[in-house]
Amino acid sequence: MVTLENLGLRVKEKRGEMGIRAAAKEIGISHATLSRVERGFMPDLANYRRICRWLGIAVEDVVGVTSAPQSLARVHFRKKPTVSAKTAQHLAQMILTAQAAMADIRKNEG
């Protein structure tokens, strides 16, 4: 089972003896981003999708993604020292509201 907490470990396991630069190139992300992921940091959404594709797992199959989407939105903003915690919380809520609206639109179109 893949969780947000062990995503970096899964990446390390798959990378094996492959160098970090080679693996990052194969995934389509920078080696610095891959290094951060392996150390337990959550990547942005685009890189997260690339990593999941490389691991051969569906984005929604990672335990913790659907059960705690607000924490995902906050993680990205919390890393920016120029964004206050209150601003990050408001931005995260805006993103979650937009995501919910898009999910409703897709459900009604299908």
Average pLDDT value?
80
**Biggest sheet character:** none
CATH superfamily of the largest domain: lambda repressor-like DNA-binding domains
Low-confidence stretches: none
Structural class: mainly alpha
Tell how many strands the DSSP assignment holds: 0
CATH fold type of the largest domain: 434 Repressor (Amino-terminal Domain)
Order of helices and strands: HHHHHH
**Molecular shape:** globular
Note the beta-strand portion.
under 5%
Going by CATH, the architecture of the largest domain would be Orthogonal Bundle
What is the share of helical residues? 55-70%
CATH class of the largest domain: Mainly Alpha
* Overall number of domains: 2
State the end-to-end distance.
Answer: 30 Å
